[in-house]
Amino acid sequence: MGASTTAFFRLGGSRRYSASSSTSVFTLLLLLSSFLIFLKLIDSAVKDVASRTRTVAGHNLEATPWHPFDLDERRLDLSASRIFHCSYLSCLGQSRAAVNPSSSSPPVACTDFFRAIHRDLEPWRRSRVSLASLAESRKYAAMRVVILGGTGLYLDLYYSCVQSRAMFTVWGLLQLLRRYPGMIPDVDFMLDCMDRPAINRTEYDPTATGGPPPPLFRYCTTKGHFDIPFPDWSFWGWPEVNIKPWHEQFKEIKLGSQSIPWHMKEATAYWKGNPDVQSPIRVELLNCNDTKQWKAQIMRQDWVQESNSGFQNSKLSNQCKHRYKIYAEGFAWSVSLKYILSCGSISLIIDPQYEDFFSRGLIAKENYIPISLTNLCPSIKSAVNWGNKHPSAAEAMGMKGQKLMEELSMDRVYDYMFHLLVEYSKLQDFKPAIPPSAQEVCVESVLCFAGDQRRELLEKSSSRSASTAPCTLPPPESL
Ligand SMILES: *[C@@H]1O[C@H](CO)[C@@H](O)[C@H](O)[C@H]1NC(C)=O
Ligand SMILES: *[C@@H]1O[C@H](CO)[C@@H](O)[C@H](O)[C@H]1NC(C)=O
Q: Of which family is this protein a member (predicted)?
């Protein structure tokens, strides 16, 4: 009995044992499948969030309606989990400490063209910038930028910009925050990163509308617009056409220009670019392609072909072989202006309609020769003839153009951004806050979205905390 009881119990025990073992297998399976379902849910949640997250690389954004372009150019091949990671996790470990840089040397005075900041912001001097005026600017903006606490950058992205413009422009802002940590005031501004100005002076004439125009930052303006010029993306690099960050690109061009002495340079005017950009000036320029009759050589740049051949024939440093270099606006202003001026040749600038932030430093017959659009080819020819008759005056003028670009170091580019934002912030009649649909962007998140080629340029153009204070802003021109 004892034995059978024992046996029973043993049996029962082992039965119980086998029952609990099948329970635990069952539990394990249950756990495993819930875990898999959980993973699947997370995965679809991540996919769902990623499919709605707008990014500096252009994910989930349409092209600007006022300047449509081919969205495929942006090459957006990131997985959903990567988009999620870059957008929501990469800024978590950021340090927020804002240390004011200690400056050792006394600040220098900013170049004269910084005065334009006062002129550009004049329309808001009395009426100030309100949230209502920003809401109006939003109609023309690709993004809203909010900077808080001197270190935090928040973006509300509305539209995608062509190629990698948005990424490199935002990178420039992040580098500004690194350069002057804690010194950028709280600001809230609208920015468009396409080419043409939008705030027409006639349509937004304050005496007619009774209010200030909408404030909008972009890369250029005209005499007929209220748009506020801001440094363009190419100062940090332009990967699609193999243009390096400005500090490096300038050095290369200057070195290239010095490899041929003035008297050995071609005694003709040279232009190389893309004439098919809806620019009447560039089309007209094709008619001047005659080195005998007009003393000009006009060459077509085929970017697709260049890209396929590794940019061997479009190196900017090899394009300083002529004493005269022609600048012709494209669809709007052209980033090529600074590379042309860097050559130390005389820049022949055809009646520009657009201004960027530094082109206000150009002085006719001092650092360039103006060319008339209405009398294009003869005007080029007479500039070339003048220079060839006065070689030392011509060389000196070329050097002055190059010097203007040398003075436009990255230090000064950041200083321009700094002063523009400081002056603009003084005009805000509200306290900036993070917009509900905005997202934080930081150095790590931008790098996270960049492929290898972009990352290389971004890293090359990164900035450190400045050891000197910003240059001092000159007062407005007295009227
Ligand atoms: C501004 O708008 C007016 C009227 O709509 C137009 O005639 C003018 O050409 C525009 N100005 C510019 C600079 O586009
Ligand atoms: C300009 O003329 C040169 C020499 O004749 C030629 O090689 C070049 O293709 C011409 N440029 C254009 C844009 O047609």
A: Belongs to the glycosyltransferase 90 family.
CA-based nearest residue to 122, from 424, 466, 455: 424
CATH for 241-355+359-407 (3.30.70.100, 3.10.180.10, 3.40.50.2000, 3.40.50.620): 3.40.50.2000
pLDDT at 5: 44
Q: For 257-309, write each residue's pLDDT tens digit.
A: 999 999 999 999 999 998 888 888 999 999 999 999 999 999 998 777 777 77
Query: CA-CA distance, 58 to 35, in Å (whole number)?
Result: 34
Q: Does the CB atom of residue 202 touch ligand 1 within 6 A?
A: yes
SS3 call for 146:
strand
Ligand 1 lined by 203 (C-beta under 6 Å): yes
Q: Is the CB of 223 under 6 A from ligand 1?
A: no
Using the Cα atoms of residue 189, residue 80, residue 78 and residue 450 in order, give the sign of their dihedral.
Answer: positive
CA 173 to chain centre: 9
Nearest ligand atom owner, CA of 332: 1
State the distance from the centre of ligand 2 to the C-alpha of 216, rounded, in angstroms: 40
